[in-house]
Amino acid sequence: EERVRKDAKDILSVVQSLRMIRSVPPSVMEVVTGFGEIWSAQTLYAYLKHKGVKTAWMDARDVLIVRSEKANAGLGDKGSSSSTGGVTPLYAKSAQNLEEWWNGVGKEEGVNSEDIPSTEAPIVIATGFVATSDSGVPTTLKRSGSDYSATIFAKLTASARVTMWKNTDGVYTADPRRVPEAFSIDSLKYDEAMELAYFGAQVLHPSAMEPCIDSNIPVYVRNIFNPDFRGTVIQGRCTSLSETNKAGKVVNWRSKQGEIPIKGITSVDGVSLLTLEGASVIGGAQVAERFMGSMASAGIDVLMVTQASSESSITIVVPENMGQAALRAAQSTFELELSRSNVNAISLTDKPLAIVAIVGEGMALQSGVSATFMSSLAKANVNIRVIAQGSSERQVAVVVDGDDASRALRAAHMAFTLSQTMVSVTVLGATGKLGSALIQQLNEQRESLSKKMNLSICVNAVTSSKKMLMGKDGKCLVTTSDVRAMLDSDEAAGLDMYALTMALKGDVNPHRVVIDCTNDDSVADYYAQWLNSGANVISPGRRAGAGPMERYNEIREAVTSNSVEWQYESSVGSALPIISTLRDLLQTGDDVQLLRGCLSGTMAYVFRTMDESTPFSEAVRQAMEKDFAENNIREDLSGVDAARKVVVLARELGMNVSVEDVVVESLLPDEIRNKEYTGTKEDVNAAILEDLKSLDEPMLKRWKAELDNGRLLRYKFYIDVATGICQCKLEGVDNTDTLYRLRDNENLIAFETSRYTTSPLIVKGAAAGPELAAAGMFADLLRMGRGFIGSQA
Questions:
Q1: Does residue 435 sit in helix, strand or coil?
Q2: Does residue 27 carry a pLDDT above 80?
Q3: Are the C-beta atoms of residues 572 and 645 closer than 8 Å to each other?
Q4: Number of H helices, E strands in the chain
Q5: Cα 428–Cα 429–Cα 431 angle in degrees, nearest 5
Q6: β-pairing, 232-234 with 187-188?
Q7: What is the pLDDT of residue 82?
Q8: What is the mean pLDDT of residues 109-123?
């Protein structure tokens, strides 16, 4: 306590003097900040003394002597690669001081005594972070320098091991705050650890490994809050470049099943690009020498360098807080060349950027590592500004926009199968029958997808027509089949499509999917925004696929421009592979001439069920009861729903058609079709069914007429590519027609093409009801999921 009070009094005197000069010199800052470590060590020393433990306290300022190349550089930024500050331990002098301390203070405190039993180990508590310069001035080992202190003393004492106690379970594959799927690495080589630390892995000091390398002292990084966990051990050197080259054969990294070439992914935030353009007149070597010399003279930390030899253009990456100083230094050096236009320009980026780097010894002589890294970023819609690869082939680094750094980290982490491929899913209309069925199926298959596909489906946002709920920080919602209860909770908010869109854009997961179960025109207006932000869209409804052509083209353009997907297989035939079959035919060069069949499960059921004992209105009621019909049954019976499906298919064929272009036979008279019904949904449906009774007799008459001629009524569609005619109509079919044996809620489509000439290609199956439609959406989602995994593979 006496020491602490004396130190506090000294600090107060220093602070009072600083008030007079109104500035804080870096050397004073280092002296003052060092007292935190000193007081911590003294407190622990006092506690152990009180407990009767044989211990001594060592003030590292009396022992550790260092030379600092940047004595006035200050502490450095936390986690910055520049935080080493050019500090070099003077081992000979420090070892001499340590021996004197051991034979002096050590003996006085009793830790250096032959009387200590072999079963007891005395404890020496040394202050970390602080040291003394070779000129005798108190200094520090710069930001996060306590790790450096530990390894320096390990070398001085020839220790068997170093253990760094942190608040994490060792060194992680990535920052777990930005990559939730990150996990602890079992082992690293010294070189790998230094690369990770240099590129921002804040759990390690960039220079901490150096003292342990010569003596091969293992460094353990463990969790003080989880001492039973082994953590990460760092030991051994990576093979040199010449040794690696002697190994010879280059192989693709994926051919080594189960072996991952990288150990971790890390980042450095807050960097800027300084670019010197078009200096070819001067000569490349001279430009590089002068440019880098100007940075060294100005004390600028250069994190990365790239050079285009064709134009002698150089780009360097510097800490953002050094950007303006670097720009001034370069402009001063090339002032004459700029005035003569021998140098086109020297520019500094004006927005925050970040370095993202993959690190691992396994990258050497393994092809496809950079390709996997770059393609994962492209798939995540992350733009790369600069690329650099170390000649040792232990790291590849890129510079990206600061806002994209977290997404880039997660994308790369998934790409190398360091974690499961996670898909963030937003379900709109989650409380409806369709949305509820989908979420139930997702929950039932979650474990299977994880085991068999290494795929994790994370539903992190759900909405109803009035409410929405989003997982905090993109966390997965614990979804159940009853989503309504979640949206009725206090955590839910009012539906705000703008806020939802902003949250979707802010989601750092590279694999984002919006599933729109609403069939709402106003929701379809957001598709292009979502796609342009890098999200993918699945829409079982037909509002977008058959909506206004201008919006349709805008959505298509967004898909093409952003390398994202818009899937809507379920919009035509629920889970039937109708659109995918059509695309396969077209992409393989087949000439599709005619599409025909029945695309309405409701109509199929009604005309399969009605007869002399089951009136038309009763058959419709049964279809509604079985959830085969649309929410508004008039969309089915008027032919509008079938017409929308026809438009979706026709546009896949390249036809410029809208719903108004389809010749549609409506089964409803105008007085029912245009009537305004009021009340609850049940009241409206009851009123419509009551009005439909007026159609029982004419429909039965038409049914009998066809039956007398050996035909059955079917609601049929045609798309004639040559004539451009699209139509939906009720007609009789005989037993030679494929629709004759159509069952209950089935859809059927026949593809007549230049290859399928003797008989058409037919896709047929049940296609009505929320479970089948949900299965179709699920299949679309899995197709995307396989694509995400494939882009990583």
A1: helix
A2: no
A3: yes
A4: 30, 32
A5: 130
A6: parallel
A7: 47
A8: 84
Residue 320 Cα distances to 28, 302, 487, angstroms = 24, 11, 43
Angle between helices 284-297 and 323-333 (to 10 degrees): 130
Plot region of 130 (φ>0 → left; ψ -120 to 50 → alpha; else → beta): beta
- Label residue 81 by pLDDT band (50, 70, 90): very low
Closest C-alpha to 411, from 682, 233, 178, 741: 178
Whether the Cβ atoms of residue 666 and residue 638 lie closer than 8 Å to each other: yes
Determine how many CB atoms are found less than 10 A away from the CB of residue 315.
Answer: 20
C-alpha to C-alpha distance for 792 and 371, rounded to whole angstroms:
9
Distance CA 358, CA 790 (A): 20
Q: How far is CA 392 from CA 216, 240, 395, 428, in A?
A: 20, 7, 8, 49
Mean pLDDT over the full length of the chain? 87
Token pair for 184: 């602890």
CA–CA distance, 537 with 66 (Å, rounded to integer): 59
Cα separation, 334 vs 349, in Å, equals: 19
Amino acid present at 685:
N
**In the structure, what pLDDT confidence band is assigned to residue 479 with cuts at 50, 70 and 90?**
low
Task: Indicate the pairing of strand 162-166 with strand 251-252.
Answer: unpaired
The more confident residue out of 638 and 283 is: 638
- Supply the residues annotated as catalytic: 645
- What is the distance between the alpha carbons of residues 353 and 320, in angstroms, rounded to a whole number? 8
Please indicate, yes or no, whether the overall pTM of this predicted structure exceeds 0.85: no
Dihedral of alpha carbons 725, 728, 732, 734, sign: positive
Q: What is the pLDDT of residues 735-774, one digit of tens each?
A: 999 999 888 888 999 999 999 988 999 999 988 888 999 9
Q: In the predicted model, is pLDDT for residue 93 greater than 80?
A: yes
Query: Which residue blocks in 248-322 are alpha helix, DSSP H?
Result: 284-297
Determine contact, residues 409/375, Cβ cutoff 8 Å. no
Q: How far apart are CA 52 and CA 50, in angstroms?
A: 5
The string of DSSP codes covering 651-706 is HHTT----GGGSEE--SS-HHHHT----S-HHHHHHHHHHHHGGGHHHHHHHHHHH
Closest CA to 636 of 625, 654, 623, 626: 623
Q: Give the range among 205-214, 246-255, 608-617, 668-677 with minimum mean pLDDT.
A: 246-255
DSSP letter at 253? Answer: G
Q: Residue 279 is encoded by which pair of tokens?
A: 């200096």
Q: Which residues have a Cβ under 8 Å from the Cβ of 12 and sit 6 or more positions away?
A: none
How are beta strands 130-133 and 138-140 bridged, if at all? antiparallel
Residue 513 in contact with residue 460, Cβ under 8 Å? no
Q: What is the pLDDT of residues 587-600, one digit of tens each?
A: 999 999 999 999 99
- Residue 79: the pLDDT is 45
Rounded average pLDDT over 488-510: 89
Q: End-to-end alpha-carbon separation of the chain, Å?
A: 61
Q: Is the dihedral of CA 335, 339, 344, 350 positive or negative?
A: positive
Cα 397 from Cα 370, distance rounded (Å) = 10
Helix intervals (H) in 298-384: 323-333, 335-339, 369-379
Give how far the C-alpha of residue 272 lies from the chain's centroid of Cα atoms, to the nearest Å: 23
Whether 354 shows a pLDDT value over 90: the answer reads: yes
Bridge-partner residues for 551, per DSSP? none
Write the DSSP symbol of residue 173. S
